[in-house]
Amino acid sequence: MGLTIAQKIIKAHLVEGQMKVGEEIALRIDQTLTQDATGTMAYLEFETIGIPRVKTERSVAYIDHNTLQCGFMNADDHRYIGSVAKKHGIYFSRPGNGICHQVHLERFGIPGKTLIGSDSHTPTGGGIGMLAMGAGGLDVAVAMGGGAYYITMPKMYKVNLTGKLRPFVSAKDVSLEILRQLSVKGGVGAIIEWGGEGIKTLSVPERATITNMGTELGATTSIFPSDEITKKFLEAEGRGEDWVELKSDEDAVYDKIIDINLSTLKPLIACPHSPDNVVTVESLSDVKCDQVCIGSCTNSSLLDMLKVAAMLKGKTISPDVSLSISPGSKQVLRMLSDCGALGDILASGARLLECACGPCIGMGFSPNSAGVSLRTFNRNFEGRSGTADGQVYLVSPETAVASALTGHITDPTTFGKKLSVSMPRKFFIDDSAIIEPAGLEEAKTLEVLRGPNIKPFPNANPVTDTIEAECVLKVGDNITTDHIMPAGAKILPYRSNIPYLSQFCFGVCDTTFPERAKKAGQSIIIGGSNYGQGSSREHAALVPLYLGVRAVIAKSFARIHAANLINAGIMPLVFENEADYSFIGQGSKLVLEDVFAGMDSGTIILKDKKTRKTYKLKCFYTDRQKAILKAGGLLQFTKGE
Fold this sequence. Notes:
Elements: H1 5-13, E1 14-16, E2 24-27, E3 31-35, H2 36-49, E4 58-62, H3 72-88, E5 91-93, H4 100-107, E6 114-117, E7 131-134, H5 137-144, E8 149-152, E9 155-162, H6 171-182, E10 190-195, H7 204-213, E11 221-223, H8 228-236, E12 256-261, E13 268-270, E14 278-280, E15 291-294, H9 302-312, E16 322-325, H10 330-339, H11 341-347, E17 351-352, E18 372-375, E19 391-394, H12 397-406, E20 434-435, H13 440-443, E21 467-474, H14 481-484, H15 498-501, H16 513-520, E22 523-526, H17 539-546, E23 549-554, H18 559-568, E24 571-575, E25 589-593, H19 595-601, E26 603-608, E27 614-618, H20 623-631, H21 634-640
Helix pairs in contact: 2-3, 2-5, 6-7, 9-11, 9-12, 17-18, 20-21
């Protein structure tokens, strides 16, 4: 039986375990990346482990999230990350150089290599044939120290593409179509491989848009073959020597096969407040829009920006619309400037923002109250934009421009003339904003610079055989990490200050949660299905840890968040009977009994002290995960090895 692309990479990097679906495997990691919202904590963890220099082939620290330096906090964190990177063998991408996934694709990604990043959209690297996965910061810290990365061996899905996209229909519409078909839970436990004759019509930037959005399916990662199109992209970046061919075997077996005819796709749009709430653009043509944002790691490539410029050339945006443009990297911005496309964008009335994540994580450019904002981003979770009642829709760059020009949601296929946009044979190369690490001898003399906002990693307590705790919060389905630990300009600067950050925990759901949790001492949270979807931010586990949460009991969990909970020393538990969810309320006094025996058997008993009812909870922990929980988290477990 032949192998898929992902299986081939896994086989070449397998350290422990067997490639059987559902079994834990350990992978050797070639590359890591961090961004500043998660990076400060990841490097504090790496320092705590005590290894003097990273052992990966390439590790890169990017500054792209907290670029609004309001007050000293962000600037201090950037200085800390820069100093720790130089000392410990990590490349440092300075503020303004670009979004981590865009820059990594341009300058560092290599087909066939493994990459984990402390950002959930790290699967963007699958666009050039990397096995690229989002992970918690602590997992990244361990990998930088030479440790393996542990995952459950995924299922393999195949999406066969046929035909060719029509004018003004784009890769973003392909992503929205697969979300429409599968939902935000449809890829959980799977790697999605894209193939078929249709992929030959897609450039690397278009492929990267699709693998980027695969994160919203809950997939472990997504991947394209490495072919002649990949080779041309790497050659244009001056990295032709990094290319290797990668393709699946003809007799490879997949757990699910999905067919999509590119020729029949229409422009699509995801309505508030979920990426899978997808309808056709033409069905919402009467909806007025107040704001349009073009950029993010999903749609900020040179190809995207050239299309935007071509559509805006000679035109002026609606007086009722505010339009922002965020190029994905300094390379993209420089090439837009050199070819004149930037002038066409600015002449339209658009506002040029920094080469950074910006509005995507609520870092400025929030919509007006109850405003309709069309964004070329990957997430439209409630409140993520920075405006609590903002109505955020996800669209392609083509739909974004058409709507900015008319002032209402507009199908771009009605735009008119066909666009003529082509990729350059050579990209402009300037790596001056990427700082190389110091040599071994110089590194010994360097000081790591810390600011007063950087606080210690919160202490975790080992799991005990009996846990008595109050249910301090009960939430519903599809709770995201933005619900648990919000982003935004007011909160992100405190990502290295867990005590301060704790007052915002679950602020979207219940502003009184932090106070109740502190008063309870130790507590349990009850959740619905797909708990913890979205960002890989480990703060969504570290802050509940600080507040005394000992266990989260849900109908099901998103992969990365479940791993982050275990890494933090918090038990993720699943209702054996989902109907039992309805019988436990906020304020219930609960007991987890015979925890250690339950870990071994896979079933832990939960008792409600008032009603005397008992419920069965599933816990599919590996021996390693049991040891982590008993040690009080991955950091303590790693230090004790």
